[in-house]
Fold each of these.
Amino acid sequence: MIKIVSCFWNAEQYISNCIKTLKNQLDGDFEVFLIDDMSTDKSVEVIKNLISDDLRFKLIVNIEKKFKLKNLDDLISTFDDEDIIVELDGDDFLLGNDVITEIKKIYNNKNVWLTNGSFMYTNGVNGFSSKANLSNIRTSVFTFSHLRTWKSWLWKKIKEEDLQDSEGNYWSVAGDLAFMFPMFEMSGEKHYRHISTITYIYNENNPLNDHKVNMPMVNSIVNIIRNKTPYNKI
């Protein structure tokens, strides 16, 4: 089953576009989990109005701040092992109405456990995401970006301590490195695919993006994650 997970905080201006691109998919056989991480705007109200008649969409409203990494970990732990996870940030959206169709085609090959794709910024400029190289994934410029998908069981094999700081708190930023490095290393190039077609629009207009408000913290955490022990191939 395709499980689309969308975490957000104060995405009132953007979340409707995200949801509409999901509803416009030609293949509608999927479930969507929208996780509100204690928004202070009208995000929840907007979502409720948009999904009230669509049982595929589930809204989770946090009563404690978790940040994306813990939100993902808590939710994926409840999924079936063979579920295919699609990560879609709540302020971003899919490009085209056949994205789910293409993802299913790729995962028809049972050797595929993990993918990343290609994205475009809202101003039309192509993003930095590209095919990853296993030999230098922890030392090269990070390109393992959207659209990211993986098998649920693969996430569950990530060591909890690799998603957390020394005090046991989940990373509040740079979480994408914390989970993509281990899953890629466990998969190896045999079980990984890069999708060259642009399927994702990254909302660079959002002033709340971590690289705009938390870059010193991002750089610090990235350095820690890069220097953790790499995983062996499964």
Amino acid sequence: MKNKILAGLITLLVISAPALAETTVDTTWDTNGYTDMSIDFYSGDDMESHFKTQALATKGEYHAKDYDNDPYSYGVDTNKAWLDASISNGGWMDFETKRTDSKISMYGNAGQRTYSKVYSYDGTAEMAFYTQTNYAEMGNCQYGKGTTTNGVNFEASGTGTEEFLGYKIYHELTDADEDGAYISAYGHGSAEVKLQGEKAGGKNSYYNMGSLKVCGDGCAWKDNYATFDGSGTGVFKQYAWADNEIDVGCPDCATGYNIPGDGSDNSAKYYLEINYAGDFSYDDFGVRGN
């Protein structure tokens, strides 16, 4: 299915994957003028995915698939959703996916969620993000998938005003117990976030936002790290919370470390805030917790 969305048109697509039938959705758009658009995809009781944008000009593509494969007869299908989109002249877009079913007896509860948003006051913003769910976990491996203009997953720029930010980037990952992590970057200028991979599952209620190993092997190479680059004046924030422990960076490397918890709700916490002016890079913001 392909849909060409005219400028200024408010479009709502709600797609539900029928039982016992593989369903693939391929939607493209290219508008020049104010656009308010949303896409909602429901794969039975296994996964749901939502995209929304309001912008003065936007183009992109959204893909989703229910494989209807029920591997190992666990009653849960494999599903994927992928977005590659941009806005210009100001606006915002967000992309959310939830894993809503699991082989509970072996892999714990469902409920994992990934959510991303990019905003620009008067410039551009882009998002390229892939997510997949199955009977065991949510896996958001970006290796070999599409990227933005500058080869990352999220980027935004904007001049803004004294009252309004020029841009903002937000990304969050949570597990079945709603433990998780988020990053937030905002300011006047531009910023880029590269996030090679993520995972979250119900067994032991774990999450991994870009901390090796997730799409690589050990403390491997810089391109496999979760990285941030900013220019202008801005703020980069990160927060993570868990019950048992949090690993920051690569704990097997000299730059990584562990934050223990006592098993009670959110007893392990990590918070980072960096204010910068000029050019700034943070080469490994990966975290994982359980």
